[in-house]
Amino acid sequence: MAETPARGQLEPRKAWAREEAAAKRRKWEELLAWHIHARGLPTPEREYRFHPTRLWRFDFAFVEFRLAVEVEGTTHEGGRHQRMAGFEEDVVKYAEAALAGWVVVRFTPAKIKSGYAVRSIEHMLRNLMP
């Protein structure tokens, strides 16, 4: 008989799926980081904590420009952002970021792979330069 996970723990199958989705997301983050470097853009801070009391982080933050970039998983992966609770938390996160003066842009793996994401970032950085 299978053991029931302790309160707050995921079933092994769900934990594995979560880790697999995170690995895929990191792959796309690494590709975007490479694109940013290849274009000669400023190096963003990774996993930047922008809020003084919440543990929220941006995947990429061009702090000087107050431009944040988030890499979103795809809907078929069923990540945290596709479940209602995760979506609701992201809505609050992005609203708080805007209130703090951040511009937050979100890209899917398809937009990273096509080069659209890095071209958009480059354009935004040009427009935000003093």
Helices and strands in order:
Elements: H1 12-38, E1 45-49, E2 57-62, E3 67-71, H2 84-99, E4 103-107, H3 109-114, H4 116-128
Parallel strand pairs: 3-4
Antiparallel strand pairs: 1-2, 2-3
Order the strands across the largest sheet as they lie in space.
1-2-3-4
Q: Strand-and-helix sequence, N→C?
A: HEEEHEHH
The CATH topology corresponds to Endonuclease, Chain A
Domains counted in the coordinates: how many? 1
Low-confidence stretches: none
Structural class: alpha+beta
Form type: globular
Largest sheet: 4 strands, mixed
* Strand composition percent: 15-25%
Helix content: 40-55%
C-alpha Rg, in Å?
16 Å
Please count the beta strands (DSSP E, at least 2 residues each). Answer: 4
Tell me, what is the CATH class?
Answer: Alpha Beta
Distance between the termini: 64 Å
